[in-house]
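Note to self: the last two entries modelled the partners one at a time, which told us nothing about the interface. This time every component goes in together.
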Amino acid sequence: MGHRSYPRPKDRAFVGGEVRLFEFKMSYLEPGYHKPGDKPFTFPPNGVDSKIGANLIEIEGRNGSGKTTLLNVLALALGYLDREKELDTKPALKRKLQDLDRNETLEYNFRICCDEPQPVELLIERKKGQKQKCCLNSKSISPENMAREFDVVFLTEDDPKKVVTASLGKLSRYFRDLDNGLNSLSHTLTKYMIEIDEFLNFKKNEKALLKEVKEHKHKIEQSNSEIAKLKDKLEKAELRKDIQEKLELLSNEGKITSQYNSLKKKYEQLKGKKNTDIFHKIYKEREKLFQAENELKDISARVIQTCDSLAHYGIILHSDKLLRDNYSEFNRIMTKTHIEKKSEMTKIAIVDEMIELLEHHSQNDIVPLIDKPVGEALRELYRIKARLSFDRVFGLLGVLRNHLDERKNAITNRERINERISFLSTDVRDLKDIENIENAFLEAQEKYLRLQHALQQDKLNIASQWNQLRSIEGDPEVIRNQLQTLEVQTKTEDSMRIKCEESLKILRENASEEPEYKNKEKKLQVLINEITRMRENLSNWVLILAQPTEAREQFTAMKEKMGFGLADYQKFVKAVGEFLGNQFEPVSFADKLHEVKFFDIEKDKFVTKEDREIPIDKLSQGQSKITTLTGSFKEMEEGRKKIVLIDEIADLDPENLQKVKSTLKDKFDEGKLALAILVRPTHDPTSGPVNIRWWG
Amino acid sequence: MRTKLYAGELLKKLVTEKELKILEIVWDTEVTLDQKIERLLGVK
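The predicted structure of the combined assembly is written out below.
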């Protein structure tokens, strides 16, 4: 193997800076894995140098040390995501690269220097949340130009179809590029043909255009005359409508004014109110209602208790009747009692009135007539009252009367609360309706203002105008629409006239100079026909490469029709098969090397020079990596350096690994390779996380 | 930069000699469109 560790081998030439070098730094946070404050994933790990003075490198590392991620990030930096065809067969890798590309925390810095055939320095840098920047030999370079200079070969895992898919994808891209070139050429040639045709047919075209301009002008004149008529008609119809409206307003003056005033009042009542205020008030009133109901229940209970007490004295009063506001029994008993206890009742009434009067004064005020302080007089009056109420039945009836009075008051209070709740609920309904009320008010207001305006005018004058205009027909809205349509038509006619005049101008200008290829019209036409035929072929070739079986079925079904057919399909598949077959080194199968002469794109089979068929998925594991690598160098374009990234070289047996390394070394010495990184896992627990060394 | 037709050998089997010349001219990135037309008109 002969690999040595960094620093750069001393036997290398070192002129004017780094000659052979790979410098690498990358870090990112994995969404969902890293938590705030965690350190990001980095490569190389701490303690491992981030550069090596060589271009043929092997990285050995423990699982999870980031060696594969380094290859992924490097592939991303080198534009591997644009290799759609190859990535289509590797959806997991495509997802990984897309995730890395979208990761705002990803940053990297790669520097590749090599010296064959001349010194090259490629710098690729991406900072967090920014686009990457590339420099080639200290000059900024776009990703497209970088792709023209460097070709990435990224072998991640053994995929028997990879080499074919990559080659077919490349061919498809190439055919499409050719088609683009032919398309722009055909476009220009067609333009020249049009110019020649215009020049040769100048008089005829000029006459046609002049006729067209004249027609447009005539139509515009007609439209303008109609527009003038319609405008006059519209003016009169609008005036008629205005007078008619005014007359209607005046005849409905009373209704409009009252409607306006009523809506104004309602609107002004509601406009300051808010739902929340009203709901709060309703809530408060409901609390009061609850209290009033409780108070009423208390009073009713007291009425029942007092009636029960009276029953002990043989006075039968049905409390349920009293509670249904039937006072007949009670009034009868009270009348009887009044007669019997007339003088006591008068005294009690006087005492009650005096108590009520004196309670309004201070305890120390002197009561005239008796010349005693209020407090003393009140105590005396309470004693008299107690003495007068000594008769229990009389007292109970007095209490009952008080309870009934209290009950009447409580009922009145409850009714008031209910009224307030009902009023507030109406407000809530109105508030829900406020938008409608507002709109109705604004409408009424507008009508009212128009009425005021009409009222200011001379009614006789309005009536006289109406007499003049009443016979005019037509709705202004309909006339206005007709007018608009006509105006749009006129504008369209006018812009068409301008276009014709411009075309005429250009036609005349072009006719003043003879077209460049006037005398080669036939040749141009032949060329256009040839290009068209080639473009048709290219389009069918791309179709065949994408879906060979479906394409064959389609061409078989077409039978003997014009254009690209089954024979063309067969010719193309044969040529492509030979082209692809020529790209492969001899393949190892059944313990024997076979030289390939053909690859069947429809059946995915190699055909050997001995006419043996080998399906591509029967190739041995390591073999397809070698096949891919050698194939990719074989089809290499001039001027494009390769960057080869190979993951899991442990898949290769020692013999195949040696072949890979020899191929890479040869290509590097030929100046066709800028960098090769081979990655393998380590199972040695005593080694560090990553070991980076050069070989070759 | 002037580059050779990538799959020239393949194209030779698929197109006529004249068409191949046309494609070579189209593929040439060193000349303008008008220069290409001039050359194409000269192709026989």
